[in-house]
Q: What sequence folds into this?
């Protein structure tokens, strides 16, 4: 059997995985197994304590501190830790909330691992948009309503994110907007400038899937006012309102 460059140099292995939106029940079996077997776990701040509790007793847990607009560990330091432990022969788990392939800098980390010749595996996770839509009793796509789903970030490293606003503003469009709380007024302005109706339904889901989940159903006209009421991580579902049954159960927090 041919050995990989990683194996011939005695390197360990890196698993880049998604912890899901927060609730331990949303964790995949593959990621649960990776948690139990990892020597080192480099986890983002939003990974829940109940997920981290599944780590094996041998695991060294290091918080890498990724939160929007908050204190965080620079990406190059995270990569240096990941490579350093792998070069020491450790089994490293790079654990991110949600899915690592959605606004999780997965590509940058894969590039670094490839360049260093370190073997790696990617394990997907349930993303916040899926969990949030489930809380509304809604489907992210629906025949006769929307033929596509947009996944958009509210901001990037350069500031508020520019998107194809004309397309998003069309009637029936559905978008999951990540990291959009502080960009709410910007998003509202761009969408309405391109023709989106002020009455377009918008639902904000804070701490999706967690015990402290909070759902605010509103319209594009009132999006900024709703966004300032939130404190935790949230996903904005543009074009979706809770189904009637879900809305009745959420009445206390809407």
A:
């Amino acid at each position: 059997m041919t050995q990989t460059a990683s194996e011939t140099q005695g390197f360990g292995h890196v698993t880049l995985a998604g912890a899901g939106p927060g609730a331990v029940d949303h964790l995949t079996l593959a990621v649960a197994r990776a948690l139990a077997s990892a020597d080192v776990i480099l986890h983002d701040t939003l990974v829940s304590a109940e997920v981290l509790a599944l780590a094996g007793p041998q695991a060294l847990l290091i918080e890498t501190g990724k939160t929007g607009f908050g204190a965080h560990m620079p990406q190059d330091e995270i990569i240096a830790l990941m490579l350093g432990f792998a070069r020491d022969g450790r089994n490293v788990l790079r654990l991110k909330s949600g899915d690592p392939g959605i606004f999780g800098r997965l590509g940058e980390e894969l590039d670094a691992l490839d360049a260093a010749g370190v073997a790696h595996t990617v394990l997907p996770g349930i993303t916040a948009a899926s969990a949030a839509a489930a809380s509304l009793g809604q489907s992210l796509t629906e025949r006769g309503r929307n033929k596509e789903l947009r996944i958009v970030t509210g901001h990037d490293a350069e500031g508020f994110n520019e998107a194809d606003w004309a397309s998003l503003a069309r009637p029936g469009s559905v978008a999951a907007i990540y990291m959009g709380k502080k960009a709410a007024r910007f998003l509202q302005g761009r969408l309405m400038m391109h023709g989106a109706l002020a009455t377009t339904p918008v639902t904000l889901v804070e701490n999706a899937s967690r015990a402290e989940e909070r759902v605010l159903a509103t319209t594009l006209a009132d999006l900024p006012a709703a966004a300032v009421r939130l404190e935790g991580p949230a996903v904005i579902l543009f074009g979706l309102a809770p189904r009637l049954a879900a809305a009745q159960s959420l009445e206390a927090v809407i």
The first strand starts at residue 13 and ends at 18.
